């Protein structure tokens, strides 16, 4: 008798465990058919591993998927103009990494050309990643103007480069955003 009872208890434990697994995998107990079951997602530990690996790849290879995205395909000053503005930006703000508050931009303006670093996050401040500014300065925007460059697709920090004859492009949609514009003195 004792052995039968212990078998029943162990069988019951297995059934309870299987029910718990069914609920975790399918969102309900004992799914009717494979067509009724939603597509399975990766287990939580594999999702975390995937995120960690993606973050490491992004950190070790900045600009892996990055390129300039321009609103207009003509009228800009190309790579030479970008590198001149990069140099002016470093003179005006320094070559060390900048820290932006939420919704803040640092922008250099010289004779109608603009180059800047912005944090589009509405909740957190952000610091430039090492060497991103230099990588951005060596990536050709073509003849585009009003260009944006996201060095990391998973973060809301970005660089801007533009040539505007009017000299006014409105750097932020948020009226509470902070824009620090410094102009060349020549």
In short:
This protein is of the alpha+beta class.
Describe the structure.
With 186 residues, this protein is an alpha+beta fold. It has two domains: 2-58, no CATH class; 65-183. Helices cover 34% and strands 22% of the residues. A hairpin with a 2-residue loop joins strand 3 (104-110) and strand 4 (113-119). 22% of the residues are buried. The model is unreliable at 1-25 and 33-41 (pLDDT under 50).
User: Would you tell me the overall average pLDDT?
Assistant: 72
Number of domains: 2
Q: In what order do the strands lie side by side in the largest sheet?
A: 1-6-7-4-3-8
| Main structural class | alpha+beta
**Number of E-type strands:** 8
Q: What composes the largest sheet?
A: 6 strands, mixed
In terms of topology, how is this protein built?
Blueprint: H1 2-26, H2 44-60, E1 68-72, H3 78-93, E2 99-100, E3 104-110, E4 113-119, E5 126-127, H4 132-137, E6 145-149, E7 157-163, E8 178-183
Parallel strand pairs: 3-8
Antiparallel strand pairs: 1-6, 2-5, 3-4, 4-7, 6-7
Notable characteristics:
186 residues, alpha+beta, 2 domains, 6-stranded mixed β-sheet, two-stranded antiparallel ribbon, 34% helix, globular, disordered N terminus
């Amino acid at each position: 008798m004792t052995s039968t009872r212990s078998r029943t208890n162990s069988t019951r434990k297995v059934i309870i465990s299987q029910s718990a697994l069914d609920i975790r995998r399918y969102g309900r107990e004992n799914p009717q058919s494979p067509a009724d079951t939603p597509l399975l997602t990766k287990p939580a530990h594999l999702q975390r591993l995937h995120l960690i690996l993606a973050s490491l790849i992004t950190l070790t290879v900045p600009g892996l998927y990055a390129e300039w995205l321009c609103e207009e395909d003509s009228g800009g000053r190309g790579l030479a103009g970008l590198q001149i503005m990069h140099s002016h930006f470093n003179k005006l703000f320094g070559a060390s990494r900048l820290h932006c508050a939420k919704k803040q931009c640092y922008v250099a303006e010289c004779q109608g050309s603009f180059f800047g670093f912005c944090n589009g996050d509405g909740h957190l401040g952000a610091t430039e990643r090492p060497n991103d500014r230099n990588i951005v300065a060596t990536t050709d925007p073509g003849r585009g103007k009003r260009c944006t460059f996201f060095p990391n697709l998973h973060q809301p920090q970005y660089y801007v480069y533009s040539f505007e004859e009017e000299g006014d492009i409105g750097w932020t949609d948020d009226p509470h955003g902070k824009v620090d514009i410094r102009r060349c003195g020549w």
